[in-house]
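dude i think i finally got it to work??
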Amino acid sequence: MPDPTIHPFETLTAPTGERVQIDQDMTPVVRELWALGLMTTGCCQDVGEATAGVRAKRDKPLGYGGDGFIDYHRGWALLKMPIPDAMRLTYLLAETPTFSDRVRQPWRPGSWRMNVPLEPDGLGDAALLHFPSQQIHELVDALRDQ
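look at this
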């Protein structure tokens, strides 16, 4: 199977001791989250671009990631976090001038899309926080100020 890595990445040691590959643009975000004691379980600096890249490298279809999915997610970064950590992050950001409206008011330009998948047994164990990729640097600054 081809290597699914699409973006340049850095290999970091997570707080758990595990070595993980983090998209290069997301590395400062993840480092700041870890410094605040928040756990991440996944991230991507551009979900649409990554999905298109993975799809282009595969012989078999992904099972997701059609043109509509890719178009919808272009320019959106992703943080996947345990629900309590995602809630704490959202609370911290809601108290900052830069991100308050972005995390409090969904479906406005620049607002975050945050959800927890619904599974047959109930809610998933991780929250998915999508935000415009161009906010990555502002997010790093906001996290450093915590």
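The chain is about 35% helix and 25% strand.
im so relieved honestly
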